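ok, trying the design again with the full structure, not the truncated one.
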């Protein structure tokens, strides 16, 4: 007989490596394990995807891709992430609607639409088409629980009235986020960005569910908390379907070869890998402290150095002092640092093949900004971390990592001004590499988490079962399965 068309799932990714990467992996699993046809949609505009890493962000050939046509964004300040993503998805809605209609008319029944959480307005298009909408959250349940508390804080308030959290936030089931770890977006009720966060969060309630890039064993208390809110109909159901992370390319590309070859020449378990993500940058002051901390630790390191985040003052001061203002990030490292650490330290600029680096036998620890993808990659590789969160969700991610359920990171304390000093960095690096008592415990927990992450995707594993449950709902909803 004639083959029935496969049910189709459309995923929509904001133009960020940290969103495209896990969605590409979700796409692969939906195709390979659950029999869907999948289209991963990205935006032609404003691609913040790094040129070097792009090839390894894309899904395998079995996943179709589509690109939403560029829309005019000239009037939106490029440095305001929340406005950029809000406007980009708003202005793309007509194109998105047209694309979804075309897919359902030509490629088979639409089983679900899964925009990432930065495209909250896209949920309206799914509503018009009568397609189930599930948000994909590339962060963790701490973030989602914070959004839920934020909604609670604004429930029943008249339009135009906004409140911020007065202190630490109790996320549920004994999980607390300290006030200083709250993302900046949630702090100032007078800012338009804060108000936009309220609007976005209210749209989350329109979704049929959430897929979150985490696993039960990393956030067991909040998994339970969300089960309860779903049972009471207070919040859409939440599925922990992680870790979804990039697989390394079978052949590293030419650009990546140098640092992998350098790692090959280092002793097993001797190198600390240092990286602060695909977009974020350190302040010049924090860069200096990281450099000094690495130097003072006496340990081997591989550091992905990016241009520091320069304030106007630091820039003019540096230029006045005869420093340079061009695009070479290495020029901003302390005077003589590269010479003094030559042989035991390698600084690469812009990009390293992180998944391969973390799983390399020479790599012993990861000094990280705790972006959630980086965190999950460290979990998968069983590598303990030194947490230097810089903003957005990273303070909360660090809270997860240092908490008793995970316990796979040391978090050196920051000074009053937010900078983590060189002594603290050096001490944490030595604690992990030279295996102090705390360092040993943290390393053991990293190994435990690695095993938990592998178990989560076994046939009876928690993430595999959660994704299976969602897949079945989707097939039933589009009449492909009873
Ligand atoms: N990444 C990489 N090489 C680098 C820097 C980053 O491969 O030199 C990848 C990293 O493996 C991760 C992603 O970029 O998959 C960064 O995502 P994350 O959530 O950690 O941080 P963000 O970039 O969003 O701050």
């Amino acid at each position: 007989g004639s083959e029935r068309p496969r049910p189709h799932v459309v995923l929509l990714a904001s133009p960020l490596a940290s969103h495209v990467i896990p969605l590409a992996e979700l796409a692969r699993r939906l195709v390979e394990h659950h029999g869907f046809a999948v289209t991963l949609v990205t935006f032609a505009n404003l691609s913040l995807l790094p040129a070097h890493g792009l090839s390894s962000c894309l899904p395998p050939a079995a996943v179709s891709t589509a690109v939403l046509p560029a829309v005019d964004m000239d009037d939106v300040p490029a440095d305001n992430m929340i406005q950029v993503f809000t406007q980009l998805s708003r202005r793309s809605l007509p194109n998105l609607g047209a694309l979804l209609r075309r897919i359902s008319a030509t490629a088979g029944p639409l089983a679900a639409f899964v925009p990432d959480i930065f495209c909250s307005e896209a949920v309206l298009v799914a509503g018009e088409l009568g397609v189930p909408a599930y948000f994909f959250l590339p962060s963790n349940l701490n973030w989602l629980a914070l959004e839920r508390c934020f909604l609670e804080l604004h429930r029943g308030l008249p339009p135009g009235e906004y409140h911020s959290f007065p202190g630490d936030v109790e996320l549920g089931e004994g999980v607390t986020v300290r006030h200083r770890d709250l993302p900046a977006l949630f702090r100032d009720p007078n800012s338009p960005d804060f108000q936009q966060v309220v609007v976005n969060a209210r749209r989350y309630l329109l979704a049929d569910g959430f897929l979150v890039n985490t696993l039960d064993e990393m956030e067991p208390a909040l998994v339970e908390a969300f089960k309860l809110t779903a049972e009471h109909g207070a919040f859409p159901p939440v599925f922990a379907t992680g870790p979804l992370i990039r697989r390394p390319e079978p052949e590293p590309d030419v650009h990546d070869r140098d640092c992998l070859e350098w790692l090959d020449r280092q002793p097993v378990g001797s190198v600390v890998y240092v990286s602060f993500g695909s977009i974020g940058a350190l302040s010049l002051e924090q860069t200096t402290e990281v450099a000094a901390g690495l130097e003072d630790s006496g340990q081997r390191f591989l550091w992905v150095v990016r241009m520091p985040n320069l304030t106007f003052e630091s820039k003019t001061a540096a230029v006045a002092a005869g420093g340079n203002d061009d695009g070479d990030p290495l020029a901003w490292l302390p005077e003589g640092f590269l010479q003094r650490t030559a042989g035991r330290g390698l600084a690469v600029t812009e990009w390293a093949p992180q998944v391969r680096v973390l799983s390399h036998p020479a790599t012993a620890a990861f000094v990280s900004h705790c972006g959630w993808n980086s965190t999950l990659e460290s979990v998968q590789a069983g590598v303990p971390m030194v947490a230097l969160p810089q903003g957005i969700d990273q303070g909360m991610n660090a809270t997860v990592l240092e908490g008793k359920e995970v316990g796979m990171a040391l978090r050196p304390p920051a000074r009053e001004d937010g900078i983590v000093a060189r002594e603290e960095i050096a001490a944490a690096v030595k604690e992990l590499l030279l295996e102090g008592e705390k360092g040993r415990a943290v390393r053991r927990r990293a190994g435990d988490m690695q095993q938990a992450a592998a178990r989560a995707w076994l046939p009876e594993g928690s993430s595999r079962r959660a994704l299976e449950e969602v897949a079945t709902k989707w097939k039933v909803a589009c009449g492909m399965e009873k």
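Keeping the full-length input from now on. The mean pLDDT is 90.
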